[in-house]
Design brief:
The chain is an all-alpha fold. The protein contains nine helices and no strands. Helix 4 runs parallel beside helix 8, helix 4 packs antiparallel against helix 9 and helix 8 runs antiparallel to helix 9. It starts with a helix and ends with a helix. The relative contact order is 0.17.
């Protein structure tokens, strides 16, 4: 599995979809924080403003995982890994770790826009413990989402269908979570 993981991480580093999703996460978050008016009574601190965009990052995660794993099927890489003798469990584990690392990279690009929020709103009002708890929950949610999307994209062999299915699943989970929250 170590060889699979090393090969997947090498492909991940050079993947244009990952870099586009990271740039989109940073730009969208920066624009959102810049355009947010400070006289809005609901958003007076960076805590409230910065976490508003987090649910929509799942769409970027879905696009990344759907296209990244779709390319693996299209190029025949998956078949070659199985023919060489790797088990399906090892291949899925390597893809899961790679997809999670890619989603964490998108989160890191989103978190880099905190500099713009600090300039506009000031530092976070929450305590350090609360911020650590937020960070842990965000990382665990992202890992769970990456696992679900990886499973979906490995079950669907068509690149276009897996990408669209992943994005639709992310939207459905976003709507379902929003309705539960309300």
């Amino acid at each position: 599995m170590r060889k699979l993981l090393r090969a997947d991480l090498f492909c991940l580093r050079r993947n244009r979809v990952l870099w586009l999703c990271m740039a989109a996460a940073f730009v969208i978050s920066a624009i959102f924080l810049l355009r947010l008016s400070t006289d809005n009574e609901n958003m007076r601190t960076l805590d409230d403003a910065f976490l508003q965009l987090l649910p929509f990052l799942s769409i970027l995660h879905a696009a990344f995982i759907g296209l990244f794993l779709g390319i693996e099927y299209q190029d025949g890489t998956m078949r070659n890994k199985l023919v060489v003798g790797h088990s399906r469990r090892a291949v899925y584990g390597a893809y899961l770790i790679t997809g999670t690392v890619g989603c964490f990279a998108i989160l890191l690009a989103w978190a880099a826009s905190v500099v713009i929020g600090v300039v506009k709103f000031g530092w976070f009002a929450a305590t350090a413990g609360t911020l650590l708890l937020y960070s842990a929950v965000i990382l665990l949610l992202t890992a769970a989402e990456a696992a679900i999307l990886t499973l979906l994209c490995l079950l669907v062999t068509n690149r276009a269908v897996s990408g669209v299915a992943a994005i639709l699943l992310a939207l459905a989970l976003l709507i379902l979570g929003s309705s539960f929250y309300n």
